[in-house]
Write a sequence for this structure.
């Protein structure tokens, strides 16, 4: 661990760095349209109804995105109770790291290293802990604490966030999202259609209409 609490991503691939630079130049507060983003993709993390469900809701988000954290705390609990816990929809979470990209990438890589059963708890804890993440101590103590909580040692954490193959796979997922027209977080897509209104009522209008279709 460095004395200044910062990360050293010496193994980050050039491709990942290029993607990070591209993302940094893009707007990161509002989503945009792009129906192809609704297609199944490698690396999707999902809960609720199984693949092939009548309604699929996709969220593109980042653990460093304040608007994503607000949605998680204000909308997600009721959304989950209404649609996910009842298996009315398949909820898919896709990673779209926003500034500071190295922190977001590290959080997502660590969540994947924690295993499928821990992926969502890790992401949700990071979203809920952004005040600590951006506090005086920097993000590393938080990420290490969360990593330790799911059984990862500091050595395993460091190996995880510098894994070239994992970084390259994330880079491919990010570029696929960009190619599909996603430019900001959080972006929500219901059955292939971007829903600009991310409130519960806005998402419910799109979901309920899709559920009612014959």
């Amino acid at each position: 661990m460095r004395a200044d609490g910062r990360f050293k991503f010496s193994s980050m691939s050039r491709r990942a760095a290029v993607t990070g630079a591209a993302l940094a130049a893009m707007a990161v507060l509002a989503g945009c349209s792009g129906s192809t983003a609704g297609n199944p993709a490698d690396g999707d993390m999902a809960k609720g109804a199984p693949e092939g469900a009548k309604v699929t809701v996709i969220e593109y988000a980042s653990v460093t995105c304040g608007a994503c954290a607000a949605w998680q705390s204000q909308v997600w609990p009721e959304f989950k109770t209404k649609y996910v816990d009842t298996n009315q929809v398949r909820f898919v979470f896709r990673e779209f790291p926003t500034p500071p990209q190295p922190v977001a990438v590290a959080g997502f890589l660590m969540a994947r290293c924690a295993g499928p059963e821990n992926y969502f708890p890790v992401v949700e804890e990071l979203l809920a802990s952004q005040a600590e993440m951006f506090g005086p101590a920097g993000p590393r103590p938080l990420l290490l604490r969360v990593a330790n909580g799911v059984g990862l040692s500091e050595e395993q954490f460091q190996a995880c966030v510098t894994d070239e193959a994992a970084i390259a796979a994330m880079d491919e997922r990010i570029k696929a999202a960009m190619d599909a027209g996603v430019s900001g977080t959080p972006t929500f897509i219901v059955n292939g259609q971007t829903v600009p209104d991310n409130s519960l009522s806005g998402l419910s209008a799109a979901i309920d209409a899709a559920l009612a279709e014959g």
Observations:
- Residues 164-179 form the longest helix (16 residues).
- The domain at 14-208 is CATH 3.40.30.10 (Glutaredoxin).
- The longest strand covers residues 56-61.
